Amino acid sequence: MKNIIPISLLLILIGCSPKSLKNDSLLDEKIARIENGLQPNLQIQGDSVVNYNIEERLSELGIPGVSIAVLKEGQIEWAKGYGVADISENRPVTSETMFLAGSISKPVAAIRAHQLAEEGKLSLDSNVNNYLTSWKLPDNEFTKKEKVTTRRILNHTAGLTVWGFPGYDKGDTIPSVAEVLDGKGNTDSVRVYKEPGESWMYSGGGYTIMQLMITDLERKSFPNLMQDNVLNPLGMTSSTFENPLSKRYHSIAATGYRDNGDEVEGKWPIYPEMAAAGLWTTPSQLILWAKEIQKIHQTKEDGLLKVGTVNEMLTPAMNNHGLGPVVNEHTFGHGGADEGFRANLVAWKEHPIAVVIMVNSDNGNIMQEILLSIAKEYKLPGVEPMTRKVVGKSIEERTPMVGTYTFPELGEASVSIKENGLEIDGEFTDEPIMLLPETDNTYFNRNSGTYYTFQFENGVVSGIRFWEYIGQKTK
């Protein structure tokens, strides 16, 4: 009688072929090199560069957990969690652990606006008040000639206030979206403060207007319409815009933590500003957004959006913002920062690679270190460490910078002498920031590398600039 191998056993034997085992081994080695090849994002000339292990680095930085997913050629090549999702429960981070995506919610939400434009239900270049019915954006002197449009909201050129939101704690009274826009929540009202189209200024407030515009048009809740039209079609079936987060997700949701290790009140914040900051997801789910946009861009074939729409999305306007994502020379994507959570999504334009990294901490420094290690392993362009140099400046040379600076969007900040540099502390800083000198008038953040440039008038310090923010010296 012949020996007959059961089909199930045959499949196992095929799956464990030498070639399969070799590929698994090579992938394990690749992941190990990434895990042990983290480098600091900010590298100062003259300082030695140290490689970090990911688990040890989490401990050093006081970050409870991190989750990573890497997409290659349309498939998730690997996804892995490290550390803990909840300290008190000693619950580990896995690839199924959900995190708040922060502002990565914006490019995901942008898809629905683009779909409505493709369907002819809105024009990206028409006044948003044409589509808002439950609330109207007040006109003022800045809207006499130019109007706030969906296109300008998408690329942050609408001239709107309120760059971000702190969220609400469990037990708080959660305002409606219209109440948020009128300043009846925990942020200022969202209003036009300069002529639309004039210049760039990041505005989560704008995306909150877009959220209300979409729900007014479709007469459905934002989580439901996003689930039906965007998340489910992308395959993001275990993601949600629901805020507060539904109880069915609580057992797999990461708890958010502050810089000092304290647990966020109620374990995580609540965001009625869902389009701007409210997406709950995993790296393996979120990367499916990148997969779809990347596929349409690279194959030139229509998908969830048309090719022309994606081309517009990935065309950078002011400050490298496209119509949803941030767009650089080699990459597109977005970062995210909610209370107790940080996230980053990066997809390459000409390479079939995308990466999502999410942490349950206000400290997201490890994300760029991981991204640098991944980019090195996969030989990807466009991701390099920041390099800075320190020049010696006497106290006498630093003293003219000392004083109080007023930023229209951020409030006051004070600059003082500190060690071999300066220290800036203000309403927009969680803690004082150490600034080191690189030139006579340019200093950089010792932790992030962000440049702070002092401005002069008639040889006297008159202001300071970092990113797009300018503060006038008032004292």
Mean pLDDT value: 94
Overall structural class, as computed from helix and strand content, comes to alpha+beta
Measured on Cα atoms, how large is the radius of gyration?
Answer: 24 Å
- Contiguous low-pLDDT stretches (5 residues minimum) are 8-14
Separation, N- and C-terminal Cα atoms = 98 Å
Please estimate the helix content: 25-40%
Strand order of the largest sheet: 12-13-14-15-16-17-18-19
Largest sheet: 8 strands, antiparallel, barrel
Shape: globular
DSSP helical segment count: 13
> Got a strand count?
19
Classify the beta-strand content into a percent band: 15-25%
Question: Explain this structure to me?
Answer:
- This protein has an 8-stranded antiparallel β-barrel. The chain has a 7-stranded antiparallel β-sheet with strand order 4-3-2-10-9-8-7, sandwiched between helices. A two-stranded parallel sheet has the order 1-11.
- Helix 2 (18-35) crosses helix 12 (365-378) and helix 4 packs across helix 7.
- The protein is of the alpha+beta class and 475 residues long.
- The protein contains 13 helices and 19 strands.
Task: Provide key terms for this protein.
13 helices; 475 residues; eight-stranded antiparallel β-barrel; 19 strands; 28% helix; seven-stranded antiparallel sheet
List the helices and strands and how they pair.
Layout: H1 7-15, H2 18-35, E1 42-44, H3 54-61, E2 65-72, E3 75-86, E4 91-92, E5 99-100, H4 105-118, H5 150-154, H6 177-181, H7 204-218, H8 222-234, H9 274-277, E6 280-281, H10 283-299, H11 307-313, E7 326-327, E8 331-338, E9 341-348, E10 353-359, H12 365-378, E11 386-388, H13 395-398, E12 403-407, E13 411-418, E14 421-426, E15 433-437, E16 442-445, E17 451-457, E18 460-466, E19 469-473
Parallel strand pairs: 1-11
Antiparallel strand pairs: 2-3, 2-10, 3-4, 5-6, 7-8, 8-9, 9-10, 12-13, 12-19, 13-14, 14-15, 15-16, 16-17, 17-18, 18-19
